[in-house]
Amino acid sequence: MRAEQAGQAGQPGQAARDPSLLSIGEVLAQLRTEFPDTTISKLRFLETEGLVQPQRTPSGYRKYSPEDVARLRYVLAAQRDQYLPLRVIRQQLDEGAHVQAPTRPTLVAVTDDFVPEEPSRVHRDELLTRAGIDAALLADLERHGLVTARAGDWFDSDAVTVAEVAGRLAAYGIQPRHLRPYRAAADREAGLFAQVVAPMLRQHASLRDTGDRRDLASRARADEALRELMLLSQRLHLALLRLGLDETLGH
After folding, report:
1. Which tens digits make up the pLDDT trace of 76-98?
2. pTM, two decimal places
3. Looking at domain 2-94, which of 1.10.10.10, 3.90.1010.10, 1.10.1660.10, 3.30.230.10 is its CATH number?
């Protein structure tokens, strides 16, 4: 497939005329139904890592074949479901891993450079509605440092998630004061992960300041490292929690 893709990539006129090929925005719209955290930067990063090789139009726009989309689905699913690093996924693909291509692409009217996203800011009343909690619980969460209102009294999407989970835990008698260790542990973990990606972000800033277009790839690499670290953290936490419960409950 790599040889075929390389040959096609050298025919930009053909890429512009082929109706079966998708723009990066159309591919993103398809993938987000199954992988909602996918971004255009992520797709470009996977290209720089050699996991997919879209064709190019004469004006330089990327055009993805059904096989390209199938490879992307394989990569994203392997990351999400098996927590595999990209080097392992690349090896699997190079060794002939089975990639099921769709028989017909679903076209979605999305521009090449813009896909609308869910609002990332909500005000207090909207947070209460979306999280399904009351003002008293929100005030308690704020008092214990689990959520913090930004200037203008708005909250980000992560605060909504924290509030929603806290509301469900409250049904089991678990109160915000019991959740403070989670915040402390998360802050320590954030500091550790920040040390890991700091050199990547410094490289990104250096390239950006010199006008080097590789700065986009360096930022995407840092974002990918953080994403993988967070997935590994979730996997480790769940395993340790199960071990703890087994030991405590005698299972």
Report:
1. 998 888 878 888 898 898 888 77
2. 0.55
3. 1.10.1660.10
